[in-house]
UniProtKB/TrEMBL annotation:
Residues 14-396 form the Major facilitator superfamily (MFS) profile domain. This is MFS family permease. InterPro entries: MFS (IPR011701), MFS_dom (IPR020846), MFS_Na/Anion_cotransporter (IPR050382), MFS_trans_sf (IPR036259). It is a multi-pass membrane protein. CDD domains: MFS_ExuT_GudP_like. PANTHER family: FI19708P1-RELATED (PTHR11662:SF399), SOLUTE CARRIER FAMILY 17 (PTHR11662). It is found in: Cell membrane. Pfam families: MFS_1. PROSITE patterns: MFS (PS50850). Keywords: Membrane, Transmembrane, Transmembrane helix, Transport.
Amino acid sequence: MDYTIGKQRNKHVILILLFIGYLVDYLDRMVMSVAVVSIKEELSLSPSAVGMILSSFFFSYALMQIPGGWLTDKFGSRKIILWSVVVWSVFTVLTGLVWSLASLLIIRFLFGIGQGGYPSATQKGIADFYPKNERSNASSILMSSNYFGIALAPLVAAPMILWMGWRNMFIVLGLLGVIMTAVFWVYYKVPRQERESNETNKVPLKEVLANLELWKITIMWFAAGIVNWGLASWIPSYLMDSRGMDMMSMGFFAALPGISTGVAMLFSGWLIQRFIPNHEKYYAAIGMLVSAVFLYFMFTTQSLVTAMICMNICMVFKSFAFTVTFSLPHKMMPNRVIGSAMGIINMGAQAAGFISPLVMGFMIDSFGTYDAAFWFLIGVSVLSIVMALSIKKPSKVISQNQEIVIHRRSL
C-alpha cells in the first residue's frame, strides 16, 4: 500500500483512539474531585489535606512531562502510550485500596507518574499522522477530550459512589484501562517512516529548552492552568458547600462547563486555522480576559442560574488559551522534537495543577470562604494575558529556526 494513502486512511482512526484514551485518562484523574467529598469524611480530613490530595497527582505529573516528552521523541509514541495507560490503570485500582492520608498521597503521586507520558505521546501521534497544515485542527479536536473528560467525571462518579462506594468506583475504572491498553496494542500502529525516524532520532533537548517562545507559551499556559485546575478541582466542593447542592445535582452542574467547553474546542482549532492564522496570541489573550471577568461574576452573584451561566462562559473562553497552547507549537517546532516541546509546555500546566488546588485549599481554610481563592485565579489570569501578548508570530519563529538549521548545516 502507498505510504501516503495509508497514512491518510489511518489518521482519523488514530485521532479517535487518542481521543478515547484521553477520556479514560481524565475520567480516572478527575473523579477524585468528586470522590474526595466522601474520602474526607471517611478519613476525617481538613480542606488543607484535601488540597494536598488534589495536588499530589499534579506534582508528579508535572515532573514527568519533560522526561515523558523526551522519551516519546526517543522511542516513539506507541511505546509511551502503552506504558502510560498500563501504569495509571494499576494505580487507579490501588486508589480504591488506600487506608490513610499518607497512602493516598503516595498512590496519587505514582498515578501522576503513569499519566505523565500520555500528553506528549498523543501530540507526537498527531505529528506522526497529520500533515503540518492540519495539525492545529486535529490537536484542538484531540484536546477537547480533556473538557469532555472533566464533564464526564462528575456524571460518572456521583452515581457510582452512591451505588457502589468510592473504593469500588476506583477499582472498576482502573479495570477499564486494561481494555484501553488492549485496544491501543491492536490498533495503534505508527507508520514505518516515522517509526524508523524515532529509532535513529537524537533529541536536542538543550536546543528545545533554549527556545524563548516556547517558554512564553509555557508560562501563558501555566497561568491559565492555575485557573483551569483550580476550578476543576474545587468546583464540586464549592457547589456543595457554598451553593447548597446535593451529590447528584452537583454532578450535573459540575459537568456542564466541561460539555460546553469541549464543544467549543471542537471548532476552536478550525476557527484559528481558517480565519486568524498567525494571530493566535490575540485569541488566547482575549479568551483569558473574558474568562477572568465572568469568573468574578460567577462567585459574586446571588443567583444560582447566573452563577452557572458565568461559570460556563468562563471555562469556554479560557479554552482559547488551551487551543493556542497545543496548536501553536506544531507551527513553531520540527517533528523530531514536538514531544519534548509539548512536554515542557504541559509541565507548566501541571505545575499549575499542583499549585492551584493546594493554594486554594489553604486560602479556603484561612479565610473560611471561597472568595479569596477565586480572586487568586483572577490575578493569575492577568499573567496569562501578558505572556500571550508577548509571543512572536509563528512565521517569525519558523524563519529564525530555519536560519539556525541552515547555519548548522553550513558548519
